[in-house]
Every structure is written in structure tokens, then in C-alpha cells.
Write a structure and sequence with these properties.
- Chain A is an alpha+beta fold and about 400 residues long.
- Chain A has 15 helices and 14 strands.
- In chain A, helix 1 packs across helix 13, helix 3 runs antiparallel to helix 14 and helix 11 crosses helix 13.
- Chain A starts with a helix and ends with a helix.
- Chain B has a single domain, classed as P-loop containing nucleotide triphosphate hydrolases (Rossmann fold).
- Helix content of chain B is about 35%, strand content about 25%.
- In chain B, helix 3 packs across helix 4, helix 3 packs parallel to helix 5 and helix 5 packs parallel to helix 6.
- Chain B starts with a strand and ends in an 8-residue tail after the last strand.
- The chains are: A alpha+beta (about 400), B alpha/beta (about 230).
- At the A-B interface, helix 1, helix 12, helix 13 and helix 15 of A face helix 2 and helix 3 of B.
- The complex binds adenosine-5'-diphosphate and magnesium ion.
- The site of magnesium ion (MG) has 2 residues of chain B, from helix 1.
């Protein structure tokens, strides 16, 4: 019998019980909607992170002071320190480093005339920052070696600051306050938007020493280092060398853990990947359960349907339907049911993903559900339909025509 | 060779405590073009016999040859094919599909015969016209009277040009005027060369047939061809 005919029969049967059909497929709808929503969000997240990390490249290395809670209990915690002296020692002793900048961050209010504003961060860096971190100055210039050497009171600001302080179309040269420190604006960073929860347009950069003056002595012990190696090939080697140099400088005995962390770009990618992986796994589990529940729902309703339509099955057999015709008919009905659920789920999931993406701050990319995710979701729906439909359909197909016709 | 040859056909229902011999050794030959009424009291095995003839059921013992084919040796697929092509079955309770138009009900055997949609439509329309329901093609069974429903069922039985029309108490659920109309239809179909076998326990219905087979307790107790209408 023609498959198209079976789909027609299936749709007719489902239309006859619209409410029941939708309720039955709720499990499938939820399961598929969850897949689609999560996939669209994970894709968005991956897009944002990858874009960000590709910007700095595979030669990007971060050195961070270790978190205190890394140390074992009972040991008297030595103050974790990472200083720019450490950075300079690394520059001296580790080959393969192209550029390095220290980084300290803190919070301070900026003021211009009667306007004031709290940027997300005030960062102290050196002249290498734009190149190390792939930032570009839009107007004016970044600090030079000379600005740093002479401890000039200058600042480079994000475009949001220009707006907030009403610095006008010509912000370069304006005198502003960063905390209590009077500085001159010498450049404005290019507009980048929000990235990973930080508004990078809402930042202020001052020379490293100026920042030390601003944030005090304790900040000098909590310096981060950002650097670019000569090539991607030497990254691992540079990491090992930095570790060696810092362990010596920090007098860390053999067997003791590092009091710092050297983080490579591909490690960040891996971490992100594993986080996204576990998110996906958890959601996958939830979805699996939803599909299972949905499948059992379909099996249940198909068994009901087979019982309700026992006479119909008898009639069909009496006029020449073979077992396989009846089997295929009910199987297609089950698949249609789960496929309709899958279709509704795709729509709902897409809407959910788009809604959440819209609610998230910043330039989260518009929800994009790749075709493979849709096909996968629909494919799984079909599988669920077949898997949970085969038993009721088999039952229908094996009905004895006489018994079926006599059924009340 | 006869169209139907039954030899010592038995049907036993095992009811646990007792065994019911619904058919206790039936021998029967039927020729192409016959018009037969199977009669007998309730429980005498008429429906059991019809179901066997219609290949809806298989005998417990004995042999059934239809067009020379030993039916008891056929598998599900082959039986389905015979039900589809050789047999047109008309039931007492019509057995039409609900929420399905008269036309689509009539089309059903053609669907399983693999006939294409357009040809199906044409043949089903013609069959409906033959039973006088051309103008009711779009109606659903719930919108038709009992007599009209049985006409639809007869059109469905006819549509695939079967060798035999089997009707198990086709007028059992109809009033006497409608019964006469339906019997008139069977008379016409027989006149057009169809083989018609019908079950009834009413003498007024049975007079339409040219041969009367009487069953009692699962056995043929008489088989007569009233001379008046013999040779038709
Ligand atoms: N499926 C069945 N299970 C058990 N007994 C049956 C079954 N079908 C018919 N019978 C018995 O077989 C006998 C003949 O039944 P049936 O052929 O329906 O008689 P009729 O149609 O002449 O009234 C009856 O005694 C009936 O109870
Ligand atoms: Mg009966």
C-alpha cells in the first residue's frame, strides 16, 4: 500500500483526536524544544568565545596569581604574590616571548567637570597591551614607552566613557579624573561591545605605574601577566619555562603546588568546550528522559488507538489488508505523532532560544539553530515513534480478522 | 472444476471445559454464477461457514478449494490477496469506517490492491452508482440510513470485481421494505453474472436465492434447488 495513503490516514486519525494527540506528544515537544533551545544558546556562546579567543590568537598566554583556596588546609598560607618583577624576570630568562604586559585592575570613579561615572574596570597596563590583547585605538593613541617611563598622567578610555562623561566629539586632550588622579585623555579605544559579560567599551586604561599609585601597594602583589609568544609552536615550551622561573623565584619546594597559573588559549578553549560539553550532557540526559516519557506516552496512546479501532482493523483485513499493511499504518501513525511533536518542539525551542538570547545582555548573536540540530531532533522523534510504535502496531497487525470484526 | 469445494470441513472451538463443534463435517460444492441462501437456526454454524468461505478464518480440519487453490495451505499474505480480489464480504452490521466518506469506504479494497488514486476514484464512483448512491459519495456513514449504509457496503464488496459475493445476514439490521430493496440489488447483481452466497434465517429473504442449503448443528441437513426457478 502506498505510504502517502498511510500518512493521510494517520493525519486523519490525529485530527480526530487533536487535544489527545498534542498532550501525548508533550514529552516529545519538551524534549525537542530543550535540544533546540540549548543548541542555539550553546552555539551562540561558542560563537562569542571563539570570536574573542581567535582575536588574541594561539600565541596568547596568561599568567595569574593562584587563588588562595588552592592551598591545602592546615598549611599556613603564604601570601600569594605575582609582581611585575616576576614578569621582568620571565622576559629576561624565558626565550620565545615577543611582547608582555602586566595587568592590574581595580575600580575607580571617573569625573569630567560635573559629570561622573563608574567604569567596569580601570586597568593598569603597559604600551604592549593593544598588541598583546588585540585591541585597537580608534582615536588618538595608546601610551608609549615614554609615557610609562616618565609616569605621565594619561589615560585611554573606552567609547562608553566618552558618552557618559559627555566628552564631546573631540575627547582627546580633555582633562579628567580617575579616582583622585588628574589625567589627560590621549586615546579612545574602538567600539567592541559586550563580551563574556564584560562591557569592553566601558573600560579605562592607565599606565601600569599610575595604576599602582591609584590602587596602592597591595595591587602590586596581584599582577597578572599577558604575553604573546613568537609562534604557536613554542607556547608549551614558554609555559614550562615560565613555570620553572616562577617556582625558583617564589621558592616553591619540590612537590608543593604552584602559587600561580599559566593559562594557554587552547586550554581556555578546552575548558570552555568541557563546560559546554557538560551542559550539553546534562541537557542531553534531560532530553533523553523527556523523549523516553514522550515515547511511552505515544506507546500508550497507540495501544488505546489500536483497541479503539479494533473493528476498523478487522474491516481493513477483511477487504484485503495484509499484516504488514496494518503494521505500517499504525507505525506511520506513531511516527507522525512523534514527528508532529518534534516539529512543534523545534518551533518552540527556536522561540525559546531566540527569547533567551534577546534577554541576555550585549551583542549575543541572533539565535541560530544549525540544520543538523533540527534534523537530529526530528530524526530522534522518528526513532522514538518507530521504537515505541512498533509494539502497538505489531499488536494491531496480528489481530485475527474475525475476532477484530466481532469486537464491541 | 467447481468454484468452491468443501470436503469434510470442521471448525472446533476449544472453550476449555467443552469443545464446540461449530462445523461438524461440511461437504459443499458451489459453481460460478450460483445464487445460494444458507439457512439454519441461530448457532447452527452459518457465520462460521461464511467466514471460512471468505478466507477470514481457516478450518480446523478438512479442505477448502477456491478456484482450485487449497486455501488452508495459504499464508497471511496469500489469504489477504484472496480476500482482496476473490471475495466481496457484506456484513450484517455494515462495518463501514466511521468519519470516512462513502466513496473512500468503497475505495478501501482498491487501496490494498495497489490501485492508483485516480483509477480508485473512478471505480469506486462506478460501484456507488451501481448501488444507486452516486449522489451520496461525500456522505459519511453517520449521515446515511441503514439501507444506504448497506448499499455502500455492497458497493465496497463489488468494487474489486470479486469471484464471490458473501453476505452474512445482510438484511438482519434493516426493516422489511429496505430488506426487499437490498435483496433486489442482490438479484440484479446475480443477474449480471455474479456469484452470490447469503446467510439468512428468514424464508422471505431466502426465496430470492436459487439454491437453499440448510445447516443444523454444524452439518448440512438439506440442499435443494426449487424447481420453479431452477435453470435460471
Ligand atoms: N469465536 C468463537 N468462540 C467460541 N465459540 C464460537 C465462536 N464463534 C462461534 N462459536 C460457536 O459456534 C457455533 C456456531 O456459531 P455461528 O457460526 O456464529 O452460528 P450462526 O451464525 O449460525 O448463528 C455457536 O455455538 C457459537 O457459539
Ligand atoms: Mg451468524
Amino acid at each position: 500500500m502506498v505510504v502517502a495513503e498511510n500518512f493521510r490516514i494517520a493525519f486523519k486519525a490525529l485530527r480526530a483526536n487533536k487535544m489527545r494527540s498534542v498532550l501525548t506528544t508533550l514529552g516529545i515537544i519538551i524534549g525537542v524544544a530543550a535540544v533546540i533551545a540549548v543548541v542555539s544558546l550553546v552555539q551562540g556562546l561558542q560563537y562569542v568565545i571563539t570570536k574573542e579567543l581567535q582575536g588574541v590568537g594561539a600565541t596568547y598566554v596568561m599568567v595569574l596569581p593562584a587563588q588562595d583556596d588552592n592551598r591545602g588546609p592546615g598549611i599556613v598560607a603564604r601570601q600569594v604574590r605575582l609582581t611585575w618583577d616576576d614578569g621582568r624576570a620571565i622576559l629576561d630568562q624565558v626565550p620565545g616571548i615577543r611582547l608582555m604586559t602586566p595587568l592590574i585592575g581595580g575600580r575607580a570613579t571617573v569625573k569630567y567637570r560635573d559629570r561622573q561615572h563608574d567604569p567596569d574596570f580601570v586597568f593598569g597596563v603597559n604600551q604592549n597591551w593593544p598588541e598583546v590583547s588585540n585591541y585597537t585605538v580608534d582615536r588618538g593613541r595608546f601610551f608609549s614607552r615614554l609615557d610609562l617611563a616618565e609616569r605621565r598622567k594619561v589615560a585611554v578610555i573606552g567609547p562608553d566613557i566618552v558618552d557618559e562623561l559627555l566628552l564631546g566629539p573631540d575627547p582627546v586632550g580633555r582633562p579628567i579624573y580617575v579616582g583622585n588622579l588628574p589625567v589627560t585623555v590621549i586615546g579612545v579605544m574602538e567600539k567592541r561591545g559586550v563580551s563574556l559579560g564584560t562591557d569592553i567599551d566601558n573600560l579605562v586604561f592607565v599606565p601600569f605605574d599610575t595604576a599602582l599609585a591609584l590602587f596602592g601597594r597591595s595591587a602590586a602583589d596581584q599582577v597578572q601577566l599577558r604575553l604573546q609568544t613568537d609562534s604557536a609552536e613554542v607556547v608549551e615550551q614558554v609555559k614550562d619555562e615560565i613555570t620553572r622561573v616562577l617556582r625558583v623565584r617564589h621558592r616553591i619546594a619540590e612537590g608543593q603546588p604552584d602559587d600561580f597559573e599559566v593559562v594557554l588559549q587552547d586550554e581556555i578553549l578546552k575548558t570552555v568546550g568541557s563546560i559546554l560539553g557538560s551542559v550539553t550532557a546534562v541537557v542531553g540526559g534531560v532530553v533523553g528522559i523527556a523523549l523516553l516519557v514522550g515515547g511511552i506516552g505515544i506507546m500508550n496512546i497507540m495501544l488505546v488507538s489500536v483497541t479503539e479501532r479494533t473493528r476498523e482493523i478487522g474491516v481493513r483485513k477483511a477487504v484485503g489488508a495484509r499484516r504488514q499493511d496494518v503494521l505500517v499504518q499504525f507505525l506511520i501513525e506513531a511516527v507522525t505523532l512523534s514527528l508532529v511533536g518534534g516539529g512543534l518542539g523545534v518551533g518552540l525551542g527556536f522561540a525559546l532560544g531566540a527569547g533567551v538570547a534577546k534577554a541576555l545582555p550585549g551583542d549575543w548573536p541572533a539565535a541560530h539553530v544549525p540544520l543538523w540540530a533540527v534534523l537530529l531532533a526530528l530524526g530522534f522523534s522518528v526513532l522514538v515513534g518507530v521504537f515505541f510504535g512498533i509494539y502497538p502496531a505489531g499488536k494491531a497487525s496480528r489481530l485475527d480478522p474475525i475476532e477484530a470484526l466481532r469486537y464491541e | 472444476m467447481a468454484l468452491i469445494e468443501l470436503r469434510d470441513v470442521r471448525k472446533v472451538y476449544d472453550m476449555g471445559a467443552e469443545r464446540v463443534h461449530a462445523l461438524a463435517g461440511v461437504d459443499l460444492d458451489l459453481e460460478r454464477g450460483e445464487y445460494v441462501a444458507i439457512m439454519g437456526p441461530s448457532g447452527s454454524g452459518k457465520s462460521t461457514l461464511m467466514n471460512l468461505l471468505g478466507c477470514l478464518d481457516t478450518p480446523s480440519a478438512g479442505s477448502y478449494h477456491l478456484n482450485g487453490v487449497a486455501v488452508e495451505s495459504l499464508n497471511d499474505v496469500e489469504l489477504a490477496a484472496i480476500r482482496n480480489r476473490e471475495i466481496g464480504f457484506v456484513f450484517q452490521t455494515f462495518n463501514l469506517l466511521a468519519r470516512t466518506s462513502a466513496l473512500e469506504n468503497v475505495e478501501l479494497p482498491l487501496v490494498y490492491a495497489g490501485v492508483h488514486r485516480r483509477e480508485r476514484r473512478e471505480k469506486a464512483s462506478r460501484a456507488l452508482a451501481r448501488v444507486g448512491l452516486a449522489d451520496r459519495a461525500r456522505h459519511q456513514p453517520s449521515e446515511l440510513s441503514g439501507g444506504q449504509r448497506q448499499r455502500v457496503a455492497i458497493a465496497r464488496a463489488l468494487v474489486n470485481s470479486p469471484s464471490i459475493l458473501l453476505a452474512d445476514e445482510p438484511t438482519g439490521n434493516l426493516d422489511s421494505a429496505t430488506s426487499e430493496e437490498i435483496m433486489g440489488l442482490f438479484d440484479d447483481l446475480h443477474g449480471q453474472g455474479n456469484t452470490v452466497i447469503l446467510v439468512t434465517h428468514e424464508a422471505e429473504i431466502a426465496v430470492h436465492a436459487l439454491r437453499r442449503v440448510l445447516l443444523r448443528d454444524g452439518r448440512v441437513v438439506s440442499d435443494e434447488r426449487p424447481a420453479a426457478r431452477d435453470g435460471a
